[in-house]
Amino acid sequence: MDKKIERIPQRDGYGKGLLELCKENDKIMVLDADVSASTRTAWVAKEYPDKFMNVGISEQDLVGEAAGLALGGMIPFVSTYGVFLSGRAWDQIRTTVCYNNLNVKFGGAHAGISVGPDGATHQALEDMAIMRVLPNMTVIAPCDCVETKKAVIAAAATEGPVYIRFGREAVPVVTDDDTPFELGKARLVRDGKDVAIIACGAMVYEAEVAAEQLAKEGIDARVVDMHTIKPLDGECISACVRDCGVIVTAEEHQMAGGLGGAVSEYLALNCPAPVEMVGVNDRFGQSGQPDELMSAYGLTSKEIAEAARKVITRK
Amino acid sequence: MDNKLNLAEICKDVRRDIVTMISKAGSGHPGGSLSSVEIMVTLYYKVMHVDAKNPHDPKRDRFILSKGHVAPALYSVLARKGYFDMAALGTLRQFGSILQGHPHMSSTPGLDCSGGSLGQGLSIASGLAMAAKKQGLNYRTYCLMGDGEIQEGQIWEAAMTAAHFKLDNLCAILDLNGVQLDGPTAEIMNVEPAADKFRAFNWNVIEVDGHNLDELAAAFECAAQHKGAPTVIVAKCVKGKGVSYMENTCAWHGAAPNAEQLAQALAEIK
């Protein structure tokens, strides 16, 4: 891969998406709980102060206020760290938003371990698991800032609750404005026939790097950007099994319950195939620089390539 | 407005509905349902601009039942207002019923939101009031809370938010009946002085007898006139009001009367 690839934080895509929506749609409201500089909703506060609401440090009220705005016909985007959104306000999201299928959108910032020095308290590693078990909820983990912006636009155009998770760190930009993005439809990044690597978030780039390394070894790896965790693109997974036989999943999240869990559930029910998972293995995060944490927790192209070699032996 | 109706008689009808439907269901929450009857009847028959024939009108006033376990009272009022057939009251809590154990807005015509997980309604009502302000709509939002319920921290998060944004189109009602599931609120977790707490959170506070229809109507009128802050009507109520053996006891917070007890209750509500 090009070592000089541009790096931009995904959260910038969240902010840009919201700005575009605010410009075009008078129903949009953007809510934050005192982390607007981090989530980039401060950009909205500056440009469109009437569309911005900061409720202070109160995530439960944050979600309830958004539910009321949705009941009043508006399209609220609730923004705070994914770990607090999915943890502190889970009952509000479950019983008020999802039970009533309200049109509330969630921006879960600081997803994954690459949050870095803030440590485990601020690193969302369980959010996809506890969001995707909720009926009516759509869950998206875009791969870069461009795809994050598209996810924001797509979320506003979809009726019902949507959770979008995105990271803090500057990560490689692997898509552009012309790259197709459709909710619920995985994106084929690179075709291959020996193993299919299904990734989400910034791990899509790591999967691409792994595929290049594997190619040098004569292994032809397919790479899929499974940006929508729910509803999962089962057709794509079935095709991966049909064409490649074995699967590797890669995510910046606990192995349990996230992308690996979702893909494994689909496989078990529809087309059993060997799977190796790359993700956080039942541990909490800690402080450190993002790149050293990604290495220490086994979330790089190296581990993805190792998982691919291993899963091929299980054919 | 249905000013010519005898609201006191309607309250008796609603009380009879409550004990009858809970008795038939074999479970439910009569105590808090009976304590909030005058509040809901005043709202739906005298205060709120609502039309059962147009239940989704974006301009209608909204009612958020935050203490969702007293759904039987609201179901009775909605049925009597014509949102759905009175016969449905006999199906409360049954499989397939439009009347779920706790309010589910998709199941029951006329419900403005679901409720049952306590402490959430004031945030929702505050968001609805904010949506009215943002869209230039004149509807008012009402939210009924229980006094045990205000032990939930989210109530006070929402209380801060509604006052901070000066949501004077929001009116909360606190059913201060002094009894919660496990016992007297003063013994389980004291919430008093509740009115002072809301004053300290910069709310307009009106204290009334929660079973006095005239006081309630006057309080709602005062709330509508008050500008620059949300209003809470602190309504002193009697848990189980109207049925002697249910009054002021936690034993009837969540218990259903048997046939004999039902007969006595119906005889007392005259």
Structure write-up:
The complex is a heterodimer of chains A (315) and B (270). Chain A has 315 residues and is of the alpha/beta class. Chain A folds into two domains: 7-172, Thiamin diphosphate (ThDP)-binding fold, Pyr/PP domains (Rossmann fold); 187-313, Rossmann fold. Chain A has helices at residues 10-24, 36-39, 42-47, 59-71, 82-88, 90-98, 127-132, 145-156, 203-216, 234-244, 259-270, 290-296, 301-313, and strands at residues 7-9, 28-32, 52-54, 75-81, 105-109, 138-140, 162-165, 170-172, 187-190, 195-199, 221-225, 228-230, 247-254, 275-280. In chain A, the strands form three sheets. Chain A has a seven-stranded mixed beta sheet with strand order 3-2-4-5-7-6-12, sandwiched between helices. A five-stranded mixed beta sheet of chain A has the order 9-11-10-13-14, with helices on both faces. In chain A, helix 11 links the parallel strand 13 (247-254) and strand 14. In chain A, helix 1 (10-24) packs parallel to helix 8, helix 4 (59-71) packs parallel to helix 6 (90-98) and helix 9 (203-216) crosses helix 13. Chain A is globular, with a radius of gyration of 19 Å. The mean pLDDT of chain A is 97. Chain B is an alpha/beta fold and 270 residues long. Chain B has a single domain (7-268), classed as 3-Layer(aba) Sandwich (Rossmann fold). Helix content of chain B is 40%, strand content 12%. Chain B has helices at residues 7-25, 30-35, 37-47, 71-80, 121-135, 153-164, 185-188, 194-200, 213-225, 259-268; strands at residues 62-65, 141-146, 170-176, 179-180, 183-184, 204-209, 231-236. Chain B has a five-stranded parallel beta sheet with strand order 1-2-3-7-6, with helices on both faces. In chain B, helix 3 packs parallel to helix 4 (71-80) and helix 3 (37-47) crosses helix 9. The mean pLDDT of chain B is 97.
